[in-house]
Amino acid sequence: MDDCTEDLRAALAANGITLPSLGAELPAYAGSYRLSLIALGNCNTMTARKLTAALRKAAGK
Which of 50, 1, 45 is nearest to 23 (CA)? Predict the structure, then answer.
């Protein structure tokens, strides 16, 4: 999961996007089944707009 998180962090950074709270979803480890979740965390509206623009560009819109 760390590789996935770091790959996502790098891809976001390549598009000028930083999600400061990006990391492992620790409560997912507390359950009886192990679910690998990545917490995207909180971001401000400027970051949300950058993420939206990058996703739209990637989707060809």
Answer: 1
pLDDT tens digits for range 12-41: 999 899 998 898 777 766 666 666 788 888
Looking up tokens 């996935």, which residue turns up? 4
DSSP-based helix, strand, coil % in the chain, nearest 5: 50, 5, 45
Looking at residue 33, what is its pLDDT? 63
- What are phi and psi for residue 4, nearest 5 degrees? -65, -45
Cα separation values, 49 from 13, 16, 23, 24, 34, Å: 14, 11, 21, 23, 33
